[in-house]
Write a structure and sequence with these properties.
Elements lengths: L2 H17 L10 H8 L4 E2 L2 E2 L18 E10 L3 E8 L2 E8 L8 E4 L3 E8 L4 E8 L4 E2 L2 H4 L27 H6 L1 H4 L3 E15 L2 E7 L8 E5 L8 E15 L2 E14 L2
Parallel strand pairs: 5-8, 12-14
Antiparallel strand pairs: 1-2, 3-4, 3-6, 4-5, 6-9, 7-8, 10-11, 10-13, 11-12, 13-14
Length: 262
């Protein structure tokens, strides 16, 4: 056998041996591929998990809405592992690093099942683990716009009113007469005090401008605005918006487009 051919065969054998100990990757639907490419298990140009690799079929119903109760947490530098209970069945999920309360209820969709998943930081292997792009608190939407948010979970503004850019209305104006603006495009100038990123394919920006800071106004946007930034954006006003899964808003500004401040 010629030396170049021998070396090629040796390299190929080494490749397969190195891959043999890796967890099998679950085949995903095209919708799930798109979701995870936008989610936490995707960095730069290469996904942390190759969703194009074939393997075992996903468990039936993994794209349905799941309601879980958190029993235990194991945080890491980037992610958090959660032992959860769903209708009496306990299992583990991994999601974006976030504040999670043991005993609280959350929703998720499209969990990607992994077998024998290895966590290097915790030096343990999970027999069964679901990779979840985002968890939604059961009361997330119901609290929004109805009461003052917990200041410990966001950047509480300490300055006075923000000077509105030409064409912007104040949040207080919107709140005082939402029906006037329903279905219309408005412009706001405000500070981003909190972000719920990559939930249902969008970012949820919490805004304040000093005119009505006891109201938690949320704007959905494709842009992820850093907390503390003052921005001017446009968006369409929706009233009594109900997405299901705990996402209900008396007033919501959708499809926010940042026009200044970034």
């Amino acid at each position: 056998m010629k030396k170049p051919q021998f070396l090629s065969l040796l390299a190929l054998a080494t490749f397969f041996l190195s891959c043999s100990d890796q967890p099998k990757v679950i085949e995903a639907t095209s919708a799930e591929k798109e979701q995870y490419q936008l989610g936490i298990f995707y960095e730069g140009k290469q996904p942390l998990i190759d969703l194009n690799t074939t393997g075992s079929k996903p468990t039936a119903g993994t794209s349905e809405l799941h309601t879980i109760v958190v029993k235990e947490t194991l945080p890491t530098s980037k992610y958090i592992y959660l032992k959860v209970d769903e209708k009496g069945e306990e299992y583990w999920v991994a999601t974006n690093k976030m504040e999670v309360a043991i005993g609280d209820t959350y929703f998720y969709r499209a969990g990607l099942l992994k077998r024998n998943f290895r966590s290097k930081e915790h030096n343990r292997t999970f027999d069964k683990l679901y990779l979840v792009s985002s968890l939604v608190p059961v009361n997330h939407g119901r609290k929004t716009g109805n009461e003052t948010p917990d200041a410990s979970s966001e950047n509480t503004r300490k300055t006075g009113p923000i000077e509105a850019a030409p064409g912007s209305i104040k949040i207080a104006e919107l709140i005082s007469n939402p029906e006037k603006y329903a279905g219309k495009t408005i412009q706001l100038t405000a500070e981003c005090t909190k972000v719920n990123a990559r939930i249902m394919g969008r970012n949820w920006l919490h805004l304040k401008d000093g005119s009505k800071d006891d109201f938690d106004l949320v704007v959905t946007s494709a842009t992820n605005v850093p907390v503390g930034h003052q921005i001017t954006l446009t968006g369409t006003v929706a009233v009594k918006k109900d997405f299901g899964s705990g996402y209900y808003y008396d007033i919501l500004v959708e499809n926010g487009q940042v026009v200044a401040g970034l």
